[in-house]
Amino acid sequence: MNVTSTENWADALAVQWDVIVVGAGPAGIAAAMESHRLGLRTLLLDKNRFPRDKVCGGCMNQVALAQLSALGCGELPRQLGAVPLRRFVLGVQGREVALHLPGGMALSRVVFDNGLLATALSRGLPFMQEVIVRDGGVGDGVRQLQIRRGHEQGTLSARWVVAADGLGGRYTASLAGCIPETRPAAYMGLSTELEDGSAYAAGTIHMASHGKAYVGLVRLENNHLHLAAAAHPDLIRQAGSPSSVLRTVLQGVGWPVPSDLNAGVFHGNPHLTTRHRPVAL
Prior knowledge:
alpha+beta
C-alpha cells in the first residue's frame, strides 16, 4: 500500500506543533508514533515520496522486534511477509563458521518503512512527504523550520524538533554548530537487490569479509537476494563500480557470485562512521 501526505500544507503552517520529527525512517516513525500516543501535537516530515528504498542490511534482530512490539507493531513484520532468521554464516579467507541465531527477521526496507508508516498514519499521525527542511533558528521559545515543497515555501514552528534524517540529512547539516566528524578510514555503504539468490539459503544471514570490505547477503520476503556492503573508499575507487566491489569480496571468500550482479541497481551511503556533535538549543 502506498502512503500519502495526510496534512494540508496551509493547515500545517498554521499549527503550533509540540513536536516535529524530520525523517520518516524507522527511528523517526517510532519517535513520532510515541509522541503522538502521548497526546502531543506531532508532525512527521520526509524529503522523499514513499515507498522508497534505503541502504540497509534488511534484517531485524530480537531487540528491534521487541521495540516494534513496544510500539504495538509486533505482528507487522509477519504481516509484511518477513522471513524468519535462524542461522548466521561467516566467511573469511576461504573458511566458514556457522552459528545458530536465537531469532530475527529479514525484510526489505522499502516494504518495512512503508508498512510502519502506514500503521502510524492509521493511528492519526500527521505526515507530509517530499518536504525539504532547513533550520530556521529559535524564536519566542520555539524552534522554527524553513520548509519547501516544489514551488511552495513556508515556516513551521515547534517546541521540540527531532532530527532523524540520517547520515546525510539536510536538516541536521543546516543546524548552526552541528559539525560532522568522520573517521579517516570510515567505510561507505552499498546495497542492492537481485533476483538470482539460488546459491544462498533463505533464513540465513551470509557475511563475507575480505580485504577492506564486507558483504552481507540474505533472502527477502519476495525471495530476492539482498546484498549490503561496507567498503573502504579506496577499494571502491580501485574496483571502479559497486558490483566490482561485491564481486571482489565474494570471490575472495570463495562464495558464488550472483549471475545478475552487474545488472544490480545500487544505493549508496556516505561514510558510515560519521558523527554529528549533539545540538540542544
